[in-house]
Structures are given as structure tokens and as C-alpha cells.
Amino acid sequence: MRISFILATMISAAMAALSIAWSVPVLVNGQAASFAYGPLVFAIDPLTAFMVVLINIGVLLGMVYGISYLRPYASKSFMEALVHAVAMVTLHGSMLAVTMMRDMVSLLIMWEIMSMSSFLLVLFEGEKARTRRVALSYFIQMHIGAFFLLLATMVLAGQTGSYTFEAMGLFYAQKPAWMLFLPLFLGFGMKAGFLPLHTWLPHAHPAAPSHVSGVMSGVMIKLGIYGILRTILFMHGDQSMLGVAILSVGIITGLYAILQAIVRNDLKRLLAYSSVENIGLLGISIGMAVLGTSIHNDVIATLGWTAVLLHMVHHMLFKVVLFQSAGNIYVATHTRNLNELGGLMRRMPKTITVFVLGALAICGLPPLNGFVSEFLMYAASIEGMKNSGAYFSIVNFFVLITLCLIGGLAIIAFTKAIGVGMLGEPRTEPARHATERSWFMRLPQQIAIGIMIVMAIVPQLMIASISAVIRSFSPNSDIVLASLMPTMTSLGIFNASLVGAVVVVLALRKIATRNAQRREGPTWGCGFTEADARLQYTSTTYADSTVQLISPVVRVHAHMHALNDADVFPHARTYTTDVVDVIEESTIQPPIAGINYALRRLAVFHTGSMRTYILYAFVFIIAIAVVTIMGVI
Amino acid sequence: MFESIKIWKQQGGQTIPDVTAVTLPEIFRGRPTIKAEACVSGCTACIDVCPVAAITQSASSTISLDLGACVFCGECADACPTEKIAFTNDYKTATSTREALIMREGDVGPVVFDADAVRKEIAAYFGGSLKLRQVSAAGCNSCELELNACGNVNFDMGRFGIEFVASPRHADGIVITGPISLNMSAANDICYDAVPDPRIVILSGACAITGGIFQRSTELQRAFVERHHIDLYVPGCPPHPLTFINGVLQLIRTRKS
Amino acid sequence: MLSFSNLDVISLDAIPVLSYGTFLTTVLDHMKANDARHCVNYMGYRLPNGDLECFCVLADDSTSQLFVARYHLAASGTMALPSLSAHYRAFHIFERVLWENHGVQFTDHPWLKPVRYPHDAAHGATIDSYPFFRIEGGEVHEVGVGPIHAGVIKPGHFRFQCTGEDVVHLEIKLGYQHRGIERLMVHPSTMLQRTVLAESIAGDTTIGHTWAFVNAMQALMRGTVSDAVEIERAIALELERIAIHIGDLSALNLDVAYQLGSAVLGALRTPMINFFQWWCGNRFGKGLLRVGQNRSSLTPALQDQLVETLDDMERRYRPIADTMFELPSVLARFERTGIVTTEQAHIIGAVGMAARSSGLRRDVRRSHPHGVYRAEDVQTHVLHSGDVMARTYLRKLEIDASITYIRILLDRLRTASRDNGTLEDRPVRELAPRSMVVSMVEGWRGELVHTSITDEHGALVHHSVKDPSMHNWFALALSLRGNEISDFPICNKSYDLSYCGHDL
Amino acid sequence: MISIALILLSSVFFIGIVNRTKSIASGRIGPGLLQHLKDIVRLLKKGSVTSTSSSFIFQLAPTISFVTVIVACLFLPFGDQPSILSFQYDVVVFAYLLALGRFSMILMAMDTASPFEGMGANREALYGMLVEPAFFVLAGSFAVLTGHTSLNEIFRDMHLGSGVSYLMAAFAVYVFLQIAMVENSRLPVDDPKTHLELTMVHEVIILDNSGFDLGMILATTSIRFAMFGVLISNFALPPMVPLWGKIIIAIVVMAVFAVVVGLLESFRARNRMKRNPQFIFTLTSIAILVFFTVLILTNKLVL
Question: CATH: 1.20.120.1220, 3.30.70.20, 3.40.190.10, 3.90.950.10. Which one for B32-91?
């Protein structure tokens, strides 16, 4: 069955080669190019070229990983395997196509194909009722997003008589920006996962197989950001209110999502929330950049756009690394529950080391690439505090506080994931018997880590290579970038020398301790003679002190029959918790429950058979196309 | 705040300036002496009265007293018809060898501290800084209280860089108090194993050195004491803080010539 | 049940042997009759023919009465019995010891777990295996502390079931200190060996345990000591109380990192125990109490020195005690931390300080007075909040009360007779045959109970020691429920229970 | 250059002065000024015991933590004397270096599979997260005040003039002092003296470290403390004073800092663990006060 997937990978590789070949010159020259195939026009400007590179790297890493990840699923029927492979290629192609479309109608159609192919990918383990439920919820929510995009298209076409992107510029010049931007932001933001539209993401990403989760979290949500960037590209004039609005959504998204990540016990769920958090960071950066552009502060604008673009690539890389390592852990232990893991560092050191590096990067810590983009965000906010009036100072002051809170909370979330799930002693038998995965399953992550290291050491080259994209957002960016380059060069050298310093000190340590006697022994447990893996912090309890600070934003329901005063000798008790995403519970769950109820009544649609779902997907793609074109006309 | 300063002033310096030159009250039962004179013939009063069998009579009918077992109850001195045995107020009884704890007839001088028995790495590593992990191996709490007192304002052992620490990983040795019960022996081993090299072992109190009053108990497991080199014996029931501090200071400041 | 009082020597034959069924209903009826009754001891020993003879002693605090009942279990008969603990939780520890030492299976015992792990325990378990209560589900983490604690403290193991920083449940496992004291007591020994052994039951309660022991022996010898000796012993006991209470106040300050309090109070303990050194040559009063006599008496010179020491101590102690109980940062740690309700204290049968800080008036000096205490001039304080603050503040009140009481005793000592005892000339005599005596002394922790039983030759066949900690350890466990784990040290220190007194 | 030399020099005495102060405040003689150094030297010579539960992270973390603090020191200027490393926005680098050190120490603690160390790691992560905003708000405020974004330039151009600005500097110094107390796990957040596993933050994290690594950790702690000392003394270095004068001022300020730490630890009790977040929040709010003062000083905010 893997044959079909290998074949798919080869097709994808070809697509990647072709699209990159088209894109690189665009990035280098800053000149847009376009190719027409009949009525279909594929246009490549610097932003598209940038997205093309990002998508291709992410998808290829995912597909190479998928080849070996799929090995345990040999029992899948040929049909299912074929659908999976085709959906993967379709996803890749549609994502590339989305970035190349230049009018809302064709974008919407490509968007629908992208959604549907990812829906089929989520359905891969459709034999599990839970996966089917999650996929269905994903399906519904994606169409809520599509509906907003459709609405935006209609607004655009209704007001300007055209649905090309150029018409957006026309619209923004004449009408209040929010009338068009709001539906667009809701539609694209749903894909990206901005609050409160994120609710599908923490379910869909973990439910998909790990190679797909990486692609979805690392790449596909960036298409949402792409959509927002694309429309901002056509904005003019003072959009500072809009900037503040995006920024505020970003702040709320980032803080809320990282808090959710802290309380999650499911490793992939934690990673999914961390993706939402990074979308929040991107939102903050976009907001700052829009603000900077609006007040004609080129420094803030340039720093902001650079941070946005770099962080998109960075996040793609470490999210692929993290999801794939999580996939390796899942294959080795068959659980994603951190409370059932532990002790993996001694059993599968190479996988876990990669995970730790990924976590280091996603927490924005030096010396990895995550630090570079967070550095730019901080720089933008400090500039914002410094350079403008009180209002902007205070707005940026909130950004600054948010950035460092998110940074600190991310450290809690990822030290929890690593500390509880991978270090210490194994908590269950499966974790005890986990073994290292093959080199081929680790290869894509190592490649990604390699790219990350390069990006951390020579950030100035990375920025230079996307300067054309930055220029398209902020025309005067070249001057700012020129003055920023020495700092970025220093930062790169700093990153490299930090590693160097650690190596030097390690060497000195080795020399200094060569004569000292070293022994091994059990961890000091106060002389207690029965070691027990229960004597370790669990994922739930590690998060507890944070939860107590922030409830009721994050609600953890504990279930235990309480001990009362007279219960001197208590009877057996069980303690379990479940975490509620407050926003999900109050916004999306009631309608979804209603739809589910309706679907149960119409059981005929809900067959559980792959073919039916594929049929639905086609029906919807056609429906969307028809409705769009009808609506526009 | 003013109240605190008043208290602080009233408190003043409480520390014993020189721990090596304190005179304890006469009644304090420190190092015993046994005069070198013949006993009343056939008299075994001291041997009979001793609750811990610390007093033995050799073939030549000279008696010796083992400070390692002695609980310093003083009953032998009372029982002796000729006042041959007497307890002095000398508290410097800690020593590096087991042999030096045996008081023989005619021993009137201080307890011998054998410098040659001190391992040479002790002074090299711990001369100015020594962290100890205490193991209460079924001690009755009087030794523990006295070891705690070593660190209080009065005795202030910390000024010599000697401190008790929480983790044996941070420690340079263990101080055992109590007769080492069967139930504590495994924990005691674990604790010793957790101390990085080089490490020392100190036995504090009669119980730790010989089992003391619990010698005959079936609930002890004293293999540890036989298996390992003991660096310092601190006799007493319990040892006076000054005994302990002086013993440790002697141990870490002895440099073999 | 046979009614008697503290230090009465009763003939074994006067105690009827009940069947277990009758025993159970009789004891339960007696417990039901009056709320002020609690179990002070319940123990058993093997008769020469292998049968098990068990005694249960109840105390009625309101009437100064003690009650005893006994039953026999044939070596060949069934060992599976219904338990008293099923009805009154406070019996749990005694029944566990009976199970551990003699294999009596209490079928409906709610907490039948090992206590001391003697080498020949009937349950066969070793110290490495203890059936801890655990909360299932994989989301609670456990914290195991001990047996080797961070400080210079005795060994015990504390197992916390935690959700983050909060403790759901604490279980305490002891037994590390088991040295076989009760066995050594009946091992062929001299009276001096037994006395030294009594001094070593718990070094911080040297005076208390030794007094309880010598009282039991003196009673069995049908002898008395002079009034002066009795008063000196009471002074020694109060000195011990002051010294430990001050030391504990210092330690409590250390645990909340209030350095001034810990340093000043720590230094104040020194003159108290140094006074013992001046009096008897040992800082803990070891070697002071002997059967029939005190090895060194409180001479007028020493009495003056004691007055001086107390005056000086009071002068330095008042300001720091006042400051400490006014300092917001200290009070914030003590107040409403580690609450044990009166109901809980009653259920577990708490005694001494632990009971008095939770609203139960339990003080042997008043409820079962012996010797000097018959004058009823000692003051007992009771606090009701049951938190760390109550236990800390109770210490301050008791220090004050003890200072006052020592002054009263010193006055009485000046006029007391030194030669009206009957044991002066010959301190060690034969013990009364086939007798039993219960000796209760209120140590600083609470009631110390030594129960001695002799055979027909006057030889000691059983000597049972009960430290108040046997009851009170459960109070510590309860005090942690719902508290922060970082408050454990102050909860623990506020009780300062004895490990070795429990483990023997 | 001067600051790193000063930091290394004063780190030798820093803990010593704190402990001397505490000894005197409790009426004892106490250990000498160099006791901490002796402890470290002994540990550097000693052997080690490593836990069988732990991985290479346990071995690596102390080194990383040490390097981060040393490198962070390289960013610190001394008055108008430039630091060794400096570039725009290096305040961010400074804070993130400390965060990296914290990250590695947390993982090291979790690596030992001990509940105590998990507890310490948990607390460290939480307090680290809470204390960061206070630092950044201050850094941002000074960036606004001076118009610069590197530590070097901020301290070079921090001309204090009016009474309000001194008040602001006083607040800032107070916040930095308390940040130093939190970062170095001192009272009232943590108590380095109790030696009780259940109540500590920093000491429990290192419960399983021994030998060279432990020595390095202790050295890191004292260097980090001295680093905050130099940071604070930078507020008291007016540009007109000659270099030797500045050095004297810095030494005096640091000595006072150490004495203040010692006194703070002598006359109050530590917080209840759950009150700590609240305490750290207070620091952030004072930092926010500084920020608004700066806005007024720079005429951004007109009341």
C-alpha cells in the first residue's frame, strides 16, 4: 500500500521542483510572473513565491516522513491507501494553487479542494468513531469559513463589480475597510485558527496521522495567514484601527491558546494548541506591521513584516519537527497521553533530542531560529513603545507584556511535554518498552533541524532572500533592512558562539573532572526503598499551579469523590480531570451538537464508508464553485 | 522593626568564641579515668552495674572501659568502693580509631586522636568546607537534637564551614546516629551510596558505635559498621555538641606529615 | 470492666477473663457511656502456654477512673475476630500492633496495615512493602518523603497524594526506628538497664518516659519516694516541656524562614537544657531519675540558679514571643494552616497538645493526677481553632504556665520533706507478683502510659509503652488534607511527634 | 570589560556578605566571607554520582546554565564603559539567555524522576514566567526614556534629572532587587536556608546534582546575583565621575545590595507558596508605574 504513497511523494517532488523553479527567480528579482493555462491563470509574485517555498518544504518533509510512518497501516485496503495518497497530492497541489490564484472565485474553488483533501486526510483512521466525529466537525467548520469567504466575494463583487484581487484595492480605496476585511478575516482566520475560530484545529490536527498533522499545522494554517496578508497587500491609508484589532485578536489568541496547551495531556493536542498560539504571535506581528505602515513608521513596519514572514517559515519547520517526533513517540508507545509516557529520553534518545531542539525553538529560546523571529517581534514592540505617542506606546506595551508572558507560558507547556512525557522514569509498560525508530523516520526532522540551524546562524541571509516580499508590503523597507542587517548578523554570530561557548565549557568540564570518580546510582529519594514511577509530577499536576492562577479562563474539571472530615481511613478513590476549551464550549459546540443530532436522524448520510465521504467532498467542491460563480454573477 | 532591633541588641553575640576551650560544669560526665591501682580483690561491682557491658576485666585483672558502648550514666563510679573510676568534665572524646575509645587503667590524659588513621584526602578536600548528611538510624532523638544544636547560635558550627545538608549528593559524608535498626539499614546503605567520592563516615553516640543500650536487641542490622571504614567515632549518650564539633574539626584539620 | 486509677497496683486475678464477644460489647458499652472516655492502652502478650492474653485499658477523663478488661485467645483457636476499630477509629493502632505481633486477624478493621515491622512480624511483610492508600487515575502524583529527611530528624516515610501543590491525602508510614524496646524490657535485665532503656525510648521525652517507668516500678515495689523527689521530678518534667516547646518555636520560625525568631528562640533553649547539665550532668536529664531516688537532687544553690535562669529566660523570651505572634508574615503562614477539627481529634483519640489545640481537654496532670499533681495547681490551656497557629500559640501558653508552675513547685520544694519515702534505703526491691500497674504521666507531647504486668514470681512479663504519638500521628496526616504541600514542614513541626516513641 | 571583571570579583564575596549580614543579625559568628568560594572549590574537585534515571540533559544543563549567565554578563555595560557584546535590542537577548538557563535547569530537574525536583521545576517555571514581564516593562521603559534599545546605550544615556526621575529610578531599583531575589530564589519567594525538600524552589532542583556540576551551579548562582548587583549599581553611576570613582561606587552599591538582601532575609518570614504569584505580580505593577512615569517624563502622556 505504501507504493501509492511513494508514488504520490514523487509526484509531489516534481510539483515542488517545478513550482520552486518558477518561484526562485521571482524572489530574487522581485518581478512577478504568470502562466496561463486556458482560463486558469497561475500568477507568482514575491509573496506567492515565498509561500511556494514554504509549502513545498513543509509538504515534502511530511511526505517523506509519511512513507515510513504509514508502515504499520499495511492492513489498510488499496482503495483507502490510494485515496490517502491522492488526497495528499491534491492537498499539496491545491495549496500551491491557492497562492497562485488572482481572483476570489478561483481562490475559493482551490480553497475548497484544499479543505476537502485535508478532510479526507483527517479521515485516514476513519474506522475510529472519534476520528469520524472530529472529521465531520472539521468539515462543518471549514464550510462556515468558506461561507465567510463566499460572503466576502459577494461583497467585493457587489461593490466593485469584479472579483479579482485588484478590485480589493479599489474597494479599500472607496469603502470602509472592515466591510470587506471582516468577512475575509473570518474566513481566512478560521483556517489559520484565530480565536474564537480555532475550535476545529485542536481536534482535527491530532486526529490526522502525524505526517498530515505536521503539514496541516505547519503549512495549511499558514494559508489562512497568506489570505490575510494577501488582502492587506491591497490596503491603503491609515488602517491603524484595523491594526489594533488584528493585534488584539492576536494577543487573545496567543495567550488563550498557550494556556490551553499547558493544561492538555494529549501531546498532539498540546502541539495543536501551540500552533494556535503561534498564529496568535503572527497576528500580533501582522497587527504591529499594519500599525507601523499606517503611521508611516518604516522601522516598525519592516520589523513587523520581517517577523511575520520569518516566523511563518520558522513555525512551519519546528512544527513539522515536533509533530513528526510526536508521531515517532506514538508509533513506539501507541499513546499520546503524557501521563502514560515518560522515560523516553533513555529509550529513544535521537527522536527526543530532536523534539527538545524543536521545543527550544518554539519557545523562542536562543540559539535556534525561533529566537530570531521572536527577537524581531520584541524589537518591533520596543520600537513601537519608543517612537510614537502615548497611545501607541501603551498598545505596544501590552504587546511586550504579551510576548514575554507567551514566552514564559510556552516554557511551561514544553517543559511539561518534555519533562513529564520524555524524561524521568516511564510511567506505563508501553513507555518502558519503547524503542528508537528507524533513521528514515528521523531523517525529515533532522533535515528540518538542519535548516533551522542555518536560519539561526545566518538570519541576515534569510531576510535578504525575502526582502522582495517585505518590500511589497513596506516599500521603504530596504533602508530599514540595511540598518537592521548588522544586528541580525550579530544575532547570528551570537547564536553560533553561544553553542561554541557551551562546547568549550563542556570540554573544560571534561578535563577538570577526568580524575574525579564518577558513579551511577538511583535518584535520591530520601532513602526510600521502593522506587515507584508514580513518584513523579504528572502532566495534570505540573499544569495545576498555572491553572489555579488563570481559572476561569481555563477550566479543569476534577472528578473525585471528596474526602470528608470524618473519613479518617478513606476508601479507594479515582481522580480524573477533563479540560474544557471554554470558547469551544460556548460558541461552536451547541450548533455542532445540533448538526450531529440532525445527522443522526438522517443516518443515511453518515455511513462511515470512505466512498460516501469522498462523494460528499466532490459534491461540496462543485456546490461551492457553482454557488460562488452564481453569487458573483 | 524597632522591636526587632531591640531583640537583636538584647540577644547580642551568643556564640561560644572558642569551642576548643570551654569548661563544662564539674558534674558533666565526660571522659572517664581509671586509676592504675589494684581493685578490691574479687570486686566486680562496676562490671555488674554497667548497663551496657562497657567495662571488661582482662586476664591480668586490670579493667578497661569502652567509650564506644558507655552511656555515661556514671553508675560505675558510684558503685566502685575505691573511687577507682571517675568521670571528668573533659568533652574532647571523639577520635579517629576504635582502639582509642578503650579507656585503660592509668589512662588519665586526653583521648588519643591518631593522625595516621586519618585518610589524607580528608584534609585536602574538606579542610575548609565540609557538608554532612545525617542518618538517623533508629536514634532516640537526643543525638539528633545535639547535632542540630551544633548548628545553633551558641555552638555555630557553620563558621567552620561544616554544615548538615539535605541531599547526600551535596554531602561529603554521613553521620550515623542510633544503633542502625534492621528497618533503617537499607536506607542507610542507599544514603551512603548516594554520597559522591571521597566520602567519610562518622558514628555519633554509643548506639551508633556499638549499639549501646540496644546491643542485645534482635531488631538491629549493624553490618554497615563492619563493612566500611569509619573516619570518626564520637562517643556519648548523646555526645555533647562540643564533643562533635571538636572531633570533626580535628578530623578535617589533621594533615599527615 | 474493672475500675481503678493511675498507679494502682491491681492483682491480675481481679480482672475477669472475658470471652472475646463479651469483651467487645463491654468495651463498646463503656466507650458509649461517656464522651470523655478514650483508650489509653490495648496490648497483648503470649502466656507460657502460647495463649495470647490481651488487656484493654480505658480512661475516663471526667472521673479520673481507669477501666481494664482482658480476654484470652487460645494458640490453637481462631485468630479472626471482629474489631473495635470498626466502631471507634482510635483503637486502630493497637489492633494493628496485635495483628503485627501476634497474628490476630481483625476482619472488619478499616486500616489493617503494618506498624513497626519487627523482624518476626506475623504479617511477614518487610519495611519495603507497605500498602499505601493511593488515588488512581494516573493524574495524581505522589510525593514520598523519607525515611531520610532533609533536616537532622528521625526517620519516617510520608506519602502525599497531590494535585499540583495541594495535598489530597497524606499517609504516614513508620517503623524505621523499631529497636524492640518492649522486648528488651522483659529480657532478663537489671533495673538499671531498664531505666537506661526507658531514658532512650525518646530522647526528647527522657524525663517523661523515665518518670512513667520508675513510677510503674515503684508502684509494683509497693514503695514511695519522698515529696521532695516527687517535686524535683515534676520540675524536671516542666523544664523538659519548656525546653522542647522553645526549641519547637525556634524550629517553626526556621521553617517559615523567620531568622530572628529562630535564632533567638534557639539560643533560649540552650540555658534550659544547660540547666539539666548543671543539675545532673547531662543536657537531656539522662541519669537523673532512678527507681526510688533521683541521682542528684536540686540543692538550694541549684534552686537559686534555676530561679535566675528562669528570670533571665523570661526577660529575653517575652519580646521575641510577642514580636513573633504579631509579625504578619509569620501569622500568614500559621493561621488557618493544617486544621484538625475537634471532631477529627475526637475520632482519632488525640491526646496531649494535639488534643488541646483542637478543643479537647486532655491533660493527665489534671484528669488522672498522681503525687504532686493532686494539689491541682497546674494550669491547662485549651485552644479551639486546631490550626498551626493554635499549636504554636498553645506552646507559648504552656511555656508561660510551666514557668509559673515551676515557681510554685520551687516554693513547695523548700518546705517539702526529703525523707518520707519508703524506698530511700533500699531503692530496688521485689516486684509484686501477678500484678498489673498503669502509670500515666503527662509529658510535653501528652499522656505517656507505661503498663507493667508481672508473673507469679514477680518477674516482669510484659511492659507496654505507649507514647502519645501513637494516637497523634494521624492528626498530622489529617492536618495536611487540602493544604499546600509546602506547608507540611510547619504542620509537622507544630506537632513534633515522636518517631522512636511510636516505633519503640 | 570592567563589568564582567567586577561581576566575577564580587560574586566571590557576594553570598559571603549576605551570609555575614544574616549571621550578625542572628547573633552568631557565622562563616567567613570566602566560605562560599571554599564550598565551590571543594565541589569542583569532588567526584559525582549520577542518577540512573537521568539522560544527557542532566549532564548538559548545568553547563548551559553557566554559559548563559556568563554570556548575559558580557552584555552588561559599566556606566558609560561599553560592554563586550552589544547590538540593538540586546535587552531581549539578555532576558532570553536567562530564560534559556531556566529552561535547561527545569528539564534537568525533570530528568531525575524525583517528585521534589518536579516540584521545584514546576515552581521555577511558574515564577520565571511571572517575573519576566516586570523585567521587560522596565527594559521597555528605559528604551522609551533614552531612545535606545541596547543595554550599552541605555545606561550610557540615562541622564537622571528631575526628582520624578529619581523616584522612578528608585522604583526600578526596587523592582530589580526583587527580580534578583526571585531569580536567585531568595526570600520571600524561596528560602535557601531551610534545607526542606517540600518548600524550596532552587535547592530542590539541584537536589540530585553533585561534584563539578553542583559546584558550577553554585558558581552560576553567585555570578547571577553579582550580575544583578552590577545591573543595579549602573543606576548609580553618573557620567561625570571618573572611572575609579565609579568602581568604588559600584562596589559600595553592591555591598549595600548584599547587606540589604541579608537584612531582608533576617527580619521577615517567607511567603506561603501560593502567595508568591501575587507577590511577583506586585513587581510587575510597580514596573508598570515606572513605565507610566517614563511616558510622562518623555511628554508622551500629558496629564
Answer: 3.30.70.20
Q: Say if CB C97 and CB C43 are below 8 A apart.
A: yes
Domains with residue ranges and CATH for chain C: 2-115 (3.30.460.80), 181-283+299-416+423-503 (1.10.645.10)
Give domain limits for chain A: 1-236, 240-511, 580-633
Q: Are strands B32-34 and B85-87 parallel, antiparallel or unpaired?
A: antiparallel
Q: Is D273 on the interface with C (CB under 8 A)?
A: yes
Query: For the residues of A454-491, what is the DSSP string, one character each?
Result: HHHH-HHHHHHHTHHHHHHH-TTHHHHHHHHHHHHHHH
Query: What residues 498-537 of chain A have any CB closer than 8 A to a CB of chain B?
Result: 516-517, 519, 521-522, 524, 527-529
Cβ within 8 Å of B, C 466-495: none
Which three cell numbers, joined as nine digits, stand for C315?
A: 526577660
Quote the minimal CA–CA distance from B9 to chain A in Å: 40
DSSP category for residue A247: H
DSSP string, A144-196: HHHHHHHHHHHHHHHHHS--BHHHHHHHHHHS-HHHHHHHHHHHHHHHHT-TT
Q: What mean pLDDT comes out for the span A366-370?
A: 91
Low-confidence ranges of chain D (pLDDT < 70): 159-164, 194-195, 303
B135 with A527: Cβ contact below 8 A: yes
Cβ(C64)–Cβ(C5) under 8 Å? yes
Closest CA to C477 of C360, C344, C357, C377: C344
Q: Where are the alpha helices (DSSP H) in chain B?
A: 2-11, 45-49, 75-79, 120-126, 142-150, 182-193, 206-210, 223-227, 241-253
pLDDT at A268: 93
Contact of C57 with C41, CB cutoff 8 Å: yes
Where along chain B do the CATH 3.40.50.12280 domains lie?
115-253
- The 10s digit of each residue's pLDDT in A453-481 is 999 999 999 999 999 999 999 888 889 99
Give the amino acid at B80.
Answer: C
Q: Is the dihedral of CA C112, C116, C120, C125 positive or negative?
A: positive
Architecture of domain B115-253: 3-Layer(aba) Sandwich (3.40)
Statement: residue A126 has pLDDT above 80: no
Look at residue C457 and give its three-state secondary structure. coil
pLDDT of residue B23 exceeding 90, the answer is no
The percentage of residues in chain C with a pLDDT greater than 70, rounded to a whole number, is: 100
| pTM score, whole prediction | 0.93
Distances (CA, A) of C222 to C7, C216, C291, C424: 10, 10, 12, 13
pLDDT in tens, A271-290: 999 999 999 999 999 999 99
Give the residue-averaged pLDDT of C224-236. 91
Inform me whether the pLDDT recorded for A122 exceeds 80.
yes
- Residue B79 forms contact with C (CB below 8 Å): no
Whether A552 has a pLDDT exceeding 80, the answer reads no
Closest-CA residue of B relative to D197 is B166
Strands C2-4 and C65-73: antiparallel
Partnered with residue A599 across adjacent β-strands are none
D contact test, residue of A303, A363, A397 with most D CBs within 10 A: A397
Mean per-residue pLDDT, A210-238? 90
From the list A530, A540, A547, the residue facing C139 with the nearest CB is: A540
ipTM of the modeled complex = 0.92
CA-based angle D235:D240:D242, to the nearest 5?
95
Give which of A112, A32, A215 is closest to A626, Cα–Cα. Answer: A112
